[in-house]
Specification:
- There is one protein chain.
- 20% of the residues lie in helices and 21% in strands.
- The chain has 425 residues and is of the alpha/beta class.
- The chain has a six-stranded mixed beta sheet with strand order 10-11-9-12-13-14, with helices on both faces. Strands 3-1-8-5-6 form a five-stranded mixed beta sheet, with no helix packed on it. A four-stranded mixed beta sheet has the order 15-16-17-18.
- A hairpin with a 5-residue loop joins β15 (356-359) and β16.
- The longest helix is centred in the C-terminal third of the chain and has 17 residues, at 287-303.
- The chain is elongated, with a radius of gyration of 31 Å.
């Protein structure tokens, strides 16, 4: 089964907690703090694997979580970092933030990796908090939580040449003749429900990947027929073979079909019309095709399009079409990247100290801020020293002043992440 879209939830591993301990040995009764740091949590890494060609694996498993780092130990021993969790994806996978829809990675090369979620930092042990004022700290940090994000994966096939055209014009028959691909072929529309790839071999060192794209109809860019689900598979092709049913046996005019399909391509992505495109006038074995071909050939000459008379049933003309596609492919020059793709978000580092305050429906003050939220997650509130350190950082970040500006009163609730505090001035 071919699956080209999947939504998954990935959660990196939490950092291991630090340790609070003191060196105690014979003749060394006050050896000082010796708690080690926790290890880093495992990252979630998407890795391109050429042995996969569909996202079907994500139909059955949609949640991935990396291991947490190992906690620190006594005698200044640090915990091990967790191993990253690799998730295999096929080449041509586009990764989006499922919440915002922004593209965050485009994975096309074998072995290419993308860190989708970073593991949390390990908490520091009490030995790391020794200073000239406090020679024997008793507190430690908990591990930093790993990043959790929902991803939308979309597969865009990496084919060199794409076959496009109305349903039942003979695209599947053509790919079955020129390659070893065996798509379903039948005399009804939308027999092909998923893209089919085949390798066309034209001799040693001359081969390319041909894609049979499911039939397009008018309005496909708006979701009509099989919709634009498969239009995206044309995006990465370098050469387009436009297949026409020149016999017109279904009552359609091949020239009108040519205009409608190209209009669908333009509506979906105008850059598709800039790709080299040749026309395969198919079904020349039928008597009606001979009558229409001359008119189609004259029209294509006016359009500046190369047209080939072919028959998928007899194989007539197909070697010439594939040879010409191979020549165009060899001469293809990669289109320059768009200077600023509106779908690609440029991420910039946010100031960690930025604090914002909102109100919940129950009247609680909710404080947002990356640094503060991380501090809450990593603080052991059962330890008095850790609590005092938290309060000191709280004042340094001027959170209390910001709360007073919002009108907080004695006894009001302050919420940060999953922690709640009662405000006391």
């Amino acid at each position: 089964m071919f699956i080209d879209r999947a939504k998954i939830q990935v959660t990196a591993g939490d950092g291991g907690s630090g340790m609070s301990s003191f060196r105690r040995e014979k003749y060394v009764p006050k050896g000082g703090p010796s708690g080690g740091d926790g290890g880093r949590g495992g990252d979630i890494i998407l890795k391109v694997d050429n042995n996969t060609n569909t996202l079907i694996d994500f139909r059955y498993k949609r949640k991935f979580k990396a291991d947490a780092g190992v906690g620190g130990q006594t005698k200044n021993m640090h915990g091990h970092n967790a191993e990253p969790l690799f998730i295999k994806v096929p080449p041509g996978t586009t990764v989006k933030n499922a919440e915002t829809g922004q593209i965050i990675a485009d994975l096309t090369e074998e072995g290419q990796e993308f860190v989708a979620a970073r593991g949390g930092r390990g908490g520091r042990g009490n030995a790391r908090f020794v200073n000239s004022v406090n020679r024997a700290p008793t507190f430690y940090e908990k591990g930093e939580p790993g990043v959790s994000i929902e991803l939308q994966l979309e597969l865009k096939l990496l084919a060199d040449v794409g076959l496009v055209g109305y349903p039942s014009v003979g695209k599947s028959s053509i790919i079955s003749v020129v390659s070893a691909a065996k798509p379903d072929i039948a005399a009804y529309h939308f027999t092909t429900l998923t893209p089919v790839l085949g390798v066309v071999s034209l001799g040693e060192g001359h081969s390319f990947v041909l894609a049979d794209i499911p039939g397009l109809i008018e309005g496909a860019h708006e979701g009509v027929g099989l919709g634009h689900d498969f239009l995206r598979h044309i995006e990465r092709t370098k050469v387009i073979i436009h297949v026409l049913d020149v016999s017109g046996q279904e009552g359609r005019d091949p020239i009108e079909d040519y205009h409608k399909i190209n209009e669908e391509l333009r509506q979906y992505n105008p850059r598709l019309l800039k790709r080299p495109q040749i026309v395969a006038a198919n079904k020349m074995d039928l008597p009606e095709a001979r009558e229409n071909y001359q008119r189609v050939a004259e029209f294509m000459a006016q359009e500046g399009r190369e047209v080939f008379a072919v028959s998928a049933a007899t194989g007539e003309g197909l070697p010439e079409v594939m040879q010409r596609a191979s020549q165009l492919l060899a001469a293809y020059v990669e289109e320059p990247e768009v200077a600023q793709d509106p779908d690609v978000k440029v991420y910039e580092a946010e100031p960690e100290q930025q604090i914002s305050i909102t109100r919940d429906d129950d009247g609680a003050y909710v404080v947002h801020g990356k640094a503060l939220e991380k501090l809450v997650a990593m603080t052991n509130f059962d330890n008095d020293e850790a609590l005092r350190r938290f309060q000191q950082i709280w004042r340094n970040l001027e959170v209390e002043a910001a709360l007073k500006e919002r009108g907080i009163q004695e006894g009001d609730t302050v919420r940060i992440r999953d922690m709640e505090f009662e405000y006391k001035s």
